[in-house]
## 1
Amino acid sequence: MLQIRINDQIYEVPEGITIKEACKIAGVYIPSLCYHADVPSGGICGLCVVKVDGSALAYSCMTKVRPGLIISTTDKEVLEKQQKHFDQFMDVSHPPPGPDIEEVMNYLFPKKTIRIRQAEKANAISFYPEKCIECQICIRMCGDVVDIGALDDPTVSLKGGKCISCGQCTLTCSTNSLTETSSIPKVLSHLVSKEAKFLLVDPEVLVSTNDSFSSDGLVGQLCIEKVVGAARKLGFKYVFDNRYSNDLISLEMTHELLDRIDSKGVLPLINSNCPALVNFIEKSNKDLIPNLSSIKPPAHILARAIRRFVASGKKEKPDSVFIVHLTGCVAAKDQVKRMQLTKDIDEAITVREFVEMINMFGIDWNSVSDSEFDQPFTGVSGASSLMATSGGLTTSILRNIHERFNGNVNLTPEMYSFVPKLETNLSMETIKIGSKELNIAICNGIASFSQLISSPEMIQNIHFVEVMTCQGGCINGGGLPKLKTRKLAEPRIKRIKEIDIASIQMLSAESNGTYIDMNIKLPLFKHGEGLSTHYEPQERANNQNKKKLLVGIPMVMYGSNKGKSTRYARLVASFLHYSSSSMNSVTLDVMKKRRTAIFIISTFGNGCFPQNAAKFYQLLTTTKEDISSVEYAILGIGDSNKGPTYCAAALKLDEQLKKMGAKPIMDLVKLNSSDPDGGDATYADWSQKLSEVLGTGKPRIGMAFLNKLQKIEDKTVHEKPSRPIGFEIAEIIEKQIVSPPDFHPRLTKITIKLPEGLTYEVGDHVAILPCNDVEVAESVISALQYAKSDVFNINSGDAIIPAKVTVMQLFTQYLDLNGPPTTSLYQTFYNSAMNDDAKKAIEPLLKEESPERMEYDKTHNTGEVIKELAKNSKPSLDALVSCISHITPRLYSAASSPETQPDTVDIYANEVIFDDGKRYGLCTHFLVKKEHVKVAIAFRRGKFKYPRDIESPIIMFALGTGFSPMIPLIVHRQQLLSEGKKIGPAFLVFGSKYRGSFAGLIMKIEGFKKDGLINETFYAHSRDDNKMHIQDILKKYPSKFWELWQEPKTCVFYCGPERGIPDELKDILLEITIAEGWLSREEAMAYNSRHDWHIEGI
């Protein structure tokens, strides 16, 4: 073995290996695309270049190590050379996909974008922030095209916000960051069961599924028999045509419309067969709920018929029926969860999910045998297909009315036909049939419906309104195969029209008030029999009250090209405690009710309005409405280098608002985006003045609240400091280093004595609020020339800081001086600089990705930055408290059980030391220092709970300190045994880099095994001689683990890195299930889904 130095750390490595191999042993990543361990190195790609001995560059794959060699992989010159070699080696416009290439690109060209919107899984739509590239196409689709704006405010969830689940955002998302919430796992688990599986197929499915398999790019090919055949191959026993129920709701809605007209009921009647429309009305226009048709959605009517009549006719038990709705509508996933409809359909899947299942099962679409729909429900009209297009339902209803008054005389497919459009469109017609004169409106898209209902004059004489949320209708549904543009969906419309024209039966089948299947003459329903439902507001009472209270609250609107205006608008909206909206999504009526309007608007091109503001400005210039009751403020954003077009849109807006009588509450401010800080200082100054004019809460600078602190005289705070909100003060009574003396980082077991009344449960997390070192806090306060004994009243919005604190308490307990500096911190010192030279010195640090900033951040934490910049800049305490990151609680797994230690709790802390050897992890440093005995502590509920069935086998995977939450589980097993109870077997797989680092823990584990609390133990150490990972243990002993895994009750407890490893373990267990259980992949997936997984991250 010989010693070398890699990135200032000393390592011992074997003689005769290359630098690349040595770095792999040390855990240091070096990019490469031409290297393979089994093939002689060639130095082809040049990506593995490193700096040796401080000057020379060398290929690490070809250079052998020698004693005392100094290696740097992080040098700026190394990275530049690697990036250059990558461009030369990958001489293509777009690198091919692959995990190795992706890993190299992430290393060489890291992205720092922060996703404000959190990961979410709603009934219909899921958001995965790690896939989001912040292109904002989804925001513009939702706000500017669909006219909902549910994605405008990233802090509002999909569930609780304005989202109507139409799924149009998923059609435009190129990375699948936004996608329909998958129902595939649930459907797969039922496909392998003994239940009778029924599939209900919507008409748009029949003209879109082939789009995913077409080798020549043809769109809209009719594929009825293929769809049915593929469904049967997937395991669906019965496949029914949902067009029958389209006919049925057309007839029921015809009855309902005529009844309302004759009885002078609530008009206009609005269709209810579009679930996204129903969501829109229930969320945003609840006054229109009585106008909605009371008829159930088509698929739910058919599902109820299957459960009531058909299942028994097919000799299937109604309680063993599993019904899936195959549709192009993402909102149908919301629909199946409705309280009123929950007993009808079990799951809804989109066409994209159907295609994914076909590919998952390895089914060759082109070789699928044609098959026909099952009977009954096969006798359908041509109009039932038309209902997949905008205007199709209206056509079907008008045909029914024609038949009632005129019989079938002169009825042709062209009569009452409307040409569906693939863009927002409002069509209003007056149709005379017999003695009836009907005023109808067809709204293609929610935006046109909003236009209609915002004008009382337009809607007051309308009898029937048909709304399709997706432009063009269901043939452009959010769950269909993605097209480059919705205009490419024209062939789907054409194919639907051809089905109607070719159909022998033009009308829905009705005979003496009974609905029948024309093919088999089977009476199936009676008019009105169990076909109705009801709708209700989705808002809870507190949300309804909140809307009432919005009258008079300032409205924040933006017009944005690249997102800067949107970002500022969100910051302003945050201190008004409401959300922002694109200008196009706001009506003048709403603006007048809110009375105060805040506009933040960019200028596009040669003095034009951004796309999401142009419609609003056009409305202002064409309306004669009086808005003299409105007050406003404008922040214009532009580039001063553009000359006369600088902030032109803001100036035009200001001029037009004044012309219409609106009154400015402050002068228009121009923000120059070409300023060194991008205009952030201008925004900070403007937002501060705005908050003072409005008399509202605190604005934000960067992403932090601007806090107001008030100095007070209160000596009691010195004598008896307030504890952090939500925390108790406990005492560290014992610290024991459990790793060998020569192993680093050190692992320390810490025992904390709990204050009276504080209790915990098995599986809980221990929340520790650490402190900065006292000497560090004092040096920072001294540099700022603050008095550490001063007392302030603070209303920070922070959930932890108490109302009264001293300066010393702030800088010791609450402000993170050890963490990385924020852009807001540099901005604050820039704004407070004493002279131009000081400003120029800070300017390069204002941009996160500048080389100067990246290099400076490597060697300076927040406290060090403050001490350096405070020499020439003296910011206020208010601003510093706002822009310094606050100390947040660190979570540790409780490594003891309350059954044996009710008054104390154990945790394990692995001391964190960064690469430079000088910087450290704040909390572990705080915990292991001997002089610290008091600690702020709270408990948080964890995910680890012992199985209710105590005989369930358990498999534990623990990585390093991830063993901590396993200890209470094992101690609980000891308690159960002492009570004479029978418990299931337990396996433990423990992994770490080096066995020696956790020698004390391993002795404890073996003690548990000796006492019979663990049946089998397995160890994997990735840096020791065996070089094993916990995944390798599963692969090495498949039969052993199958002994436990073959029991469906087996529970898995995993604690380690949350990403990657759990999925790999699941994949390996899937292969074990296939091999040991003699199951197909689909059967194994269904079987494995029954096992419970409990995953904790470290």
Note: The radius of gyration is 34 Å.
## 2
Amino acid sequence: MGVPKFYRYISERYPCLSEKLREFQIPEFDNLYLDMNGIIHVCSHPDDNPLQSTPEETIFKDIFYYIELMFRLIQPKKLFMMAVDGVAPRAKMNQQRGRRFRTAKDAEIAAARVMAKSGSVDPEERFDSNCITPGTEFMDKLHQQLKYFIVYKISTDKLWQRPKIILSGHDTPGEGEHKIMDYIRYLRSRDDWQPNTRHCLHGLDADLVMLGLCSHELHFSLLREEVKFGRNQKRPANPEEISYELLHLSLMRDYLDLEFQTLKDTLPFPYDLEKVIDDWVLMGFLVGNDFIPNLPSLHINENALHNLYQLYIEVLPILGGYINEAGVLNLERFEKYMNKLAEFDFEHFKEIESDLKYFEMKTSNKKMKNSTEALNDCSSKNEELMNMINSTKSAEFSIELLLSMGWLCDTEEDLIKWDEPETEDDFMKEFTKFKAKYYKEKMHFKEVNEEVLQRQAECYIRAIQWNLHYYYHGCPSWSWYYPYHYAPFISDIKDFTRLGQLDFELGMPFQPFQQLLGVLPPGSRTILPEAFRHLMVEPESPILRFYPENFVTDLNGKQQEWEAVVLLPFIEQEILVSAMEPYYKDLTPDEKRRNKHGPMAIYEYTSEDLGVREAPDYFPPVLSNHAKETIIFLKEIKVPSEKLKWGVLPGARESYWYGFPTLKFIPFTGKLKDAKVQVFQQPSRGLNMMLYLKGVKAVSLEEAANKYLDKEVYVGWPHMVKAFCVISTNSKVTLSDDGSVVRSDLTRPEQFQWSMVGQELALKHRNRLGIEIGHVDVVIFAKKLIGAKYEFNENGEAVKKFNWASTATSHPLQTIVDNVNLLPCEKVCGGQPDNQVPLHVLFPRGQVAFLMKPELYGVEVKIRESSNKGTVTIKVQNEAEPNIDSAYALKEEYYEQYYQGSAAATMCGLGSSHLLSRITGTILIQTFENDPHSKVNIGLNMKFNKFSQEVVGYTKKMNGRFWNYSDKAVQVIKEYIEKFPDVVRYLCNHNEDVFMKKDFFASSENADTKIQEILKWLSDHPYSKAERRSVGSNILSEVVVKELEKIVTSDGWRNENTSILEVKPGELMLPVSQLNLMEPDSSAQHLLLDRVVNIRECHPVPLGLKGFIIGIETKDDEQATLYDISFDVPIINGFQLHTEEKRCYRLTRHAFINLSHGRR
């Protein structure tokens, strides 16, 4: 379920809310929940191309890979739940129906465009994303694949053996995220529930914020891909390269406390943040969601939420209590709130009426554009004016725009008094007419009277109560739905207190095929069982009217087409069910099986071998199954209302797990301000909740040094990270051996530099985090915690010690937090330091490790035993290494020469490097004269300045400025010039951003043919398949990589010898399951053709697998540099980079030992 623009709104209003994290920074969680449908959509049609075709096997593998990545990132300790959307409540089906009809229409339009260009489209090859609906053959196959995948992971991966794993599939009714919340409510009702459980929910819907908050669990975070707004924002193809954000609901709670802080002084009853949060959830419904339309004039981008919050602050003190009582609407209090909110209706209409009168006057003497007759009666323009007003962001026009359109005169005679005052009665009459027109035109009421309006009010209030019940208790009715595309005016939602308790009949969810027929468009009817397809298209079908060939959409005050209301007829359940009844007998046995609801499945590890688990298509069987399956039905986890537990549970502590940020510990005041804080790489559009630190006073360097130097503190408030202080400014300060402070004064240039550091920190806090920290007098430099490792004394005793970063980062003194105890996080910071661990626990028999002795550097070993004298006996598995001298020789022989633009231009016979740059870049041609969006690119596309990317083997950007070209690139350019001389000749004298096809080709008919010829040549040319990499990357040539692959796949070099050694424990490195910033050997340099071994366990790359570095993609952050490694054997989820098989994978330097470094 989604609330358009909600995520952006809260992220900009509360700037610290989300945290962009790398893998090693993600805190420890007990429970991980995946709302699976977002993952399914991303993996099946990642580019949102309606004509895209992805093989089914690839889709399943990508879904598995994504799940595995999420699990590896979070590594839940207790519970892992995957919830796929099942049959939804009837209230949701209206939105599902509109979305699927729009998807089919988009595909139809896209196909028409392709037909116009190339003349052919194969509908059989297209992946119809509408098949991601419960009951389809695709979803049934996916369900079987997911069950197999869970068994496979539990049986083969020790990390998956720790938590309980739940699969709620497409055959279990309910939306994925609400099935998750049902299960959380069930867990909270149990006597053994731990109130400080840490939850992580992955999903892409913005309203997961509301669901998480109404659980009232204190340690709840949302994991989602990093959001970047703006044009041409593309998602990385490799899930491991995606940046993730954690949205911390602990911070959201703090921000909401700030948002409504004035209530603490104005309420005549106790202030309760939990109940304020419940009312905040209720207010979010008024701007619309998947079940109910937004109220007229309430749009998020027009400040609706801000206005709702301010009104709440004003009205709550006179209500006598809170409105949302744990999912039950207090009608009397809500009616008072709505009566006050109705003033928005009046104000909105005043603006519209004022504009109408003004425009009527302005157009009364104005001629229509290209017309010779004056507009004597502008009343006929009212409807068009209203449409224009309603389609704008607010009820105001740009006068300049209307003048340019020919609507208005701009003479002095026009500037007369036009807004004559009216009586209140006249105003209300006009307002009543205005609303009556809305109801008749939008909602098709023949008559608008008090009885009709009262029914509308009751219907809307029922919708609000249904939503609250759905969020707080679970689905109250499977059959209820809001029967209109539009909501009533706020001023007409009144006199509803008399309704009393609003009850719903639970009923039964649709059967899967009933929902399919209810939501699918005719264009997707092949997804249905054949027995029902004719009901969508045959003239005699009793439900044919539910499937119009054409439909209209209505922006209804919105700005984007995807926000528009899809005006489809509502499905009538009884008629639909009756129409289907005669055809159930024609279903196949497999289809009858698919048309049933099913249970959830719980999987737990067992040491017992359960035998062979056969696999579905594409995958091998699990020979030794260790996953015990238990079936659980929805009714077993349904908690009666009287047993549900509300609010923060007893025993829950607002203390503070490491990795869960909080606004506590530093005093501040909060104030909303139009501060333009940059949250999504651009200034915010609305107000920001700015934090102003209190009590910031000047502190001498000596005081700061004595308090913090050589101490552990927390930096980065409110996203606190443990760090070790080493320096304070604006003078260098160190501690002498006796503990005294040594101060060395700075030179004038150094003083200026230090002052700039302080200013930059203040600016960063203000512009990026929305925190005003004041003047920075003292800057603390601290080394952040990057993990923990074991150190061994002479007796071989292991003691865990914190490991700090090698370089220090700067932090304003006023944001340093000390004297606070955060609960330790084993995953991020290694738990508590100074913990002694016996050697036999650290190095159990059979444990794999890696030897770091110089003569056996990086060799894989197995532990035999740990002695009480502080040594470890190991079995060394010393493998032979392949001879790659031929690869080194080819590297030298095939060294790729790159030429500056001027030299490359000369080699290609071009007169200037500018022309070369144009040919190798983008050449846009508008293919239809009246359609500015119909552009195709006939350039070579060898360089990407905007994304700072090169084409491997063809282009390189030197010094961040100049593009250089390889011999291969020169050859392609020469071919292009020879093949399409007309294009090159025209470019010699023209430099437009976008060309018309007639510019290059005289005949329009010939132009289309020629453009298609160019596009086909470009797509067929081998260079178009070359990989794009970040500028500054380095990669071996194809011939060298193929030589490496030939060497490692040949026979004769593989042999192994074993030996038994006794070593010191400090000479051993254990595998890592969770990535951190501790490198196996910080002194190692990593070069192309270096031999490496993977030390990550429970990873797509098997532990101990060896390979060669064939590519290096540099990053601004050196720690994030990626290394392309070609491994000795193909790997699941690997990729091809100049190789015949999928044996390549990308790792950071923390995940491997460089064997070549040990030999150097």
Note: The first helix runs from residue 6 to 13.
## 3
Amino acid sequence: MGLFDFATKLFGNKYDKDLKEINPVIDKIKAAYTSIQSLSNDELRQKTSEFKKQIQDAVATQRKTISDLKEKAENTELALHEKESLYSEIDKIEKEIIFEIESQLNNILPEAFSVVKETASRFSQGNIEVTANDFDRDLAAAYDNVVINGDKAIYHNKWIAAGTEVEWNMVHYDVQLIGGYVLHSGKIAEMQTGEGKTLSATLPLYLNALSGNGVHLVTVNDYLAKRDSEWMGPLYQFHGLSVDCIDKHQPNSEERRQAYLADITYGTNNEFGFDYLRDNMARRPQDLVQRPHNYAIVDEVDSVLIDDARTPLIISGPTPTGDKHEFNELKHKIATLVNAQKKYITTVLSDAKRLINDGDDKQGGFNLLRAYRGLPKNKALIKFLSEDGVRTLLQNTENYYMQDQGKEMPKVDEELFFVIEEQHNSIELTDKGIDLITSNMDDNQFFIMPDVGATIAELEKSDAPDKEKIQTKESLMRDYSIKSERIHTVNQLLKAYTLFEKDVEYVLMDNKVKIVDEQTGRIMEGRRYSDGLHQAIEAKENVKIEAATQTFATITLQNYFRMYNKLSGMTGTAETEAGELWDIYELDVVVIPTNRPILRDDREDLVYKTAREKYNAVIEEVANLTQEGRPVLVGTTSVEISELLSRLLKMRNIKHNVLNAKLHQKEADVVAEAGKAANVTIATNMAGRGTDIKLSDEVKAAGGLAIIGTERHDSRRVDRQLRGRAGRQGDPGSSQFFVSLEDNLMRLFGSDRIAKMMDRMGLEEGEVIQHSMITKSIERAQKKVEENNFGIRKRLLEYDDVMNAQREVIYKKRKHALFGERLSVDIDNMIYDTCQSIVEEYQIAQDFDGFKLELIRFLSIDSPVDEDNFKQTNTEALTEQLYENAIAQYKVKSEIISQRTYPVIKDVYENQSTTYENIVIPFTDGMKTLQVVANLKESFESNGNNIPLAIEKGVSLAIIDDSWKENLRELDDLKQSVQNATYEQKDPLLIYKFESFNLFKQMMDKVNKDIVSFLMKANLPSQDPSQVKREQHQKENLQTSRAGIESNRHSNQSVPQQASQKIKKPIVVEKETGRNEKVIITNGAETKEIKWKKAKPLIDSGQWRRV
């Protein structure tokens, strides 16, 4: 007995412990089910009302307390610190309500689960007749399966789902009760294919919907979202719960808002995330669609929370210079460079073969390593590495040159034009490569970055005039910026030409480059690689290069789903990623037992030396299986391989269907036929994920569905997903993987032991090895890749966590500004922070004159102290004194605005109230004008007293939004620039965290000062009623984007572009000057042309103005 077996026997394993904890709950459900079975149809429905009442009664006192506190907080006479205390108490009670509701749900769980199971049982027996209520009548008007007959409502057990009529024939098994409980507990239920995950989810969805706070079922595509909402919907509707699917409705529409108000809402991960971003760009409360994030179940949770975790959802708009790039100008040089490298590597590889055959392993290994570092994907190289002893020689040579931190490696690289580190997805130009691409240029420094530090140091020491020094510095920084972008363009073009293959990572369709999802094989419509990589691929393929865009709002799926009070998920393949799911989301994975034992025969891998031998063996196996009358599903990792196998099968006259990224529209039809006798289906890894391949009795008798994997995937989950297509619900079946030493996984991470063993055994061409030890060795290689990918994901998520922390602060401020409830507290804090900032800045410098000017500039007040007191008073006391004066001044200002505005409002209300509901009033601080939206009737009835709040809301939203967009752009630039820190042996992430904190601090300080400054100076430019206009919504063209995921072997994120979404805005926003656009400014004595990002601070200081 091994140590692990002994420990398991002594302490038990996780699977047994999980079931031991769950079984008592299942026993309670079974006991409750007996009593539920005896209820009439009407009594069964009545249970839902009883559950709802029990939950509402439990939290009624707390909700009454919140209502009283809110009413008290609305008192305008209340001190602001008291308001802040009240709001803190409200937040605390709201959290207590969440915990109390969860406790009540746990209490009613056995009965609630029993109600759902009994409802499913009665539908499976036929139609159900109940006493009709108003909800039934509304359903009957919209759905054919509900019919009103007098005072009775008849729920038919046949209805339309995804365009097809379905007849209900499912009742929850015990294992589905287990799955339902695990989902309700906020964990991940791993259920095998065909075990009924969709039905299991009905239990926790019904239970949690009883709270009235809404629950979400998240799917990976809109087909599943629409199908499942229609398929499971009648189960909930029978009990008076509303069901909807957000993907059926347009964004920002009233229909989508109502979909979120439904008790149970289905939708795709993309749309849930995009709606969150859109809500945080809304300018009116009525434009919001989402409620607070209560509870979500994520279907195919591994795909959403692992594969797509680092994928940002992006809402973007045009950038001033988005169509300016050098991809077309530089691609010919890169093509020349790549061709030169290919030609050279062919020679080097030929020499390596000759030297190795002559017995000179030292020089031959050296040439072999040089070829590998030059073009690791060269097909001739890959084929040569499969020969006896060659791979071992390469590994030994590489180990020699990698020792002493790679001190000897430059000898290998010196004759190459560029070096590819395939495992790290990096490409570096050598001096020889730079010489080649600059050989026909006058400027031999075209790709050489200037040494900024050394040049500036020399400049400071020189006797040149200050004006000349400034011009030289500007020229130097401009040169640095241009060359930095140029080198980035070259690197992305090199990646496009050497690491990204057509029909593997992407396909060309409709004259566009479309990314293929590595996990599913589907085309990811609208997604684009980020950081210029997609544009580089477009340049390589000679298609239109799309313009770059600017980010307006963004969030990763990881950070979106972590906002839910409770999150759970279901999939057939999560156990291998359990560690990551716990580390990032604190989600425990519970393996659910199968309803029937799995009869599938999972065979050990067959390992061949070359890919050609492997594919010949696959074709032979397919031919044998079809002769036995068994259906065959052949899984591939790329479009290229699926088309190769299709050609080979055609040569053997074997009928088959192909399902890949180019043909994904046929998925439903192909999957429907996949289970028929002797039917052969070639599919990229998607293999109809989310659907079951059903078998006839004839096929079962022949041995069931045969799965053939043509390559081991980087991730064990994907292999398990493919295996899981066979053996559903106790069906017979088999799975067999064919592997070669030329496969990507084996080439990059395969065990040395396999290569050595095949060499020692002296295997002839076409011979194969098969052993459990080999299979385990391959799985160890997969584990290495998974660990590597987890490291990449975790690091990228750490970058996003920095932005997420800032996002939470901004969106919280924005929400306060949108609703206005807590805005007075925020404004109060902004005034205090502005006072503190001014005092600290000028007291340290003992600059009283600067202090007075700053007070006038931002607060429009005089100094409350003279110069002597300014220098002697401590900072805290002076800040407090200044704050009190500013608050008093602001209150007076607000009253004056109300008095000045009311006559205008009165005139409009009395003469045009039938025309206007909301009005737009222009206010100015003397420099810029903002349009403030207010309700006309409310403004009239309050004698204009609501106008100061409307100004606060409008000003805060406008300034926060502009500053946040600018900050996002700064963070994008920072993230790219800090990567150069690796050359200085520094951690880019640490620098990014430090610099981004400083950027955010500066932004918040500027936001506070800008808002306070405008509010202190705000005035009505004219009391002419014609200045007051009807509120209009301008539509702004924005793009919703889901960043495309590259192959896990590549680490770039992607920034996609989908169809434009219309965002309603109540004001017209003038086009901003781009931060890098040049403008002319003057101070009266001097005029100069500089970039806007440098000019803006000078203009803001008041000493310069724009010409």
Note: The chain has a mean pLDDT of 82.
